[in-house]
Amino acid sequence: MSITRKFFGTLPDGTQADLFTLTNLKNVSVDITNFGGIIVAVSVPDKSGNMDDVTLGYDSLDKYLENPAYLGAVIGRHANRIEDASFELNGKVYELVKNDGENHLHGGITGFHNVVWKAETIAGNGCEKLVLTHTSPDGEENYPGNLDVRVEYSLTGDNELVIDYSAVTDKDTVINLTNHAYFNLGGHSSGDALKHQLYINADSFTPVDDECIPTGEIRSVKGTVMDFTTLKYFAEGISSEDIQIVNGSGYDHNWVLNTKGNLKGVAAELYHPQSGRLMQVFTTKPGVQFYSGNHLSKEEDIIGKGDTVYCKRSGLCLETQYFPNAMKHKHFPSPVLKAGDKYRHTTIYKFGIR
């Protein structure tokens, strides 16, 4: 695998951002910018060998400076929602910004999606890696601890986009990193994503209230529209009157993975029969958030790459994570990172055809 680097744009403060292209011997490529660690493009073949970009994004840095849908971005310090924008740690209550109604979403205003990361390329395991690093200072967004974060991207000869996350802190804190890429295996400009089939290796999920906040319950998917234990079209349940679909305006929920952190087990699978493209997800995290792009047109249609209009459900996300709102439900896997300990998490998006 090779990595090339080119200028992508300049921020208002004069800071430069670059675009890195990872390419393997099969001509599969992934474009990533060190602004927000954003996955800008993923080009993979269909069953006829035709290449297409299968992730939503923008053509220029300027568009990413206002990225309300978090297209392709690294999310942190804490992905997803925290109820009442506050949490208690070691007897102290930390008040966070309310940027999702009365709740905290995706790390706040100065989230990891909104900074320029230091970037370098290194050799490893037969291929180059793109390594992004960032230090979030103690008190940023009112999170405790100086947090040093490292995200490594690599593209294997088997068409696997591997994302390795790690972090250390000098004070107990919370951390829950993920990537917010929107996928459409028909091609980013092919219209809505409702022609996809989905499998999630999970027998249960975490129900949400009408603000999309997990209630603390862990509920079986059996007999509900949340059951993706066999590959099926998710469009079958998207307009259901099930209260969970109503609360999420579609799918916007966390599934409790049966893989339990085993990277060798398939956590989820996305399939587009028309193109034959297949994407499998592997992760060390205990949960995955399936978001069906319900709010892409909440305010106005998004004008993406090649002037493509991204409207409602033009793409979907499979965000590997700790469960949302885990600081309010102690029986959920904990996102607390102790001072001196190391946070590690790996997610693999593997592309193929069927």
Your description of this structure?
The chain has 354 residues and is mostly beta strands. The chain is built from 3 helices and 29 strands. A hairpin with a 2-residue loop joins strand 11 (118-124) and strand 12. The chain has a single domain (2-353), classed as Beta-galactosidase, Chain A, domain 5, CATH 2.70.98. The two termini are 24 Å apart. It has helices spanning 61-65, 235-238, 243-248, and strands spanning 2-10, 16-23, 29-33, 38-45, 51-53, 74-75, 81-82, 86-89, 92-95, 104-105, 118-124, 127-136, 147-155, 160-169, 173-174, 178-179, 197-200, 202-206, 219-220, 232-233, 252-257, 268-272, 277-283, 287-291, 302-303, 309-310, 317-321, 336-337, 342-353. Helices cover 4% and strands 41% of the residues.
The counted number of beta strands is: 29
Helix amount: under 10%
Strand content: 35-45%
| Rg of Cα set | 19 Å
Mean pLDDT: 96
- Structural class by secondary-structure content: mainly beta
- Shape verdict: globular
* Main CATH class: Mainly Beta
CATH topology: Beta-galactosidase, Chain A, domain 5
Uncertain segments: none
Please give the CATH architecture.
Distorted Sandwich
Enzyme class: isomerase
Protein name: Aldose 1-epimerase
GO biological process, one term: glucose metabolic process
Catalytic activity: alpha-D-glucose = beta-D-glucose
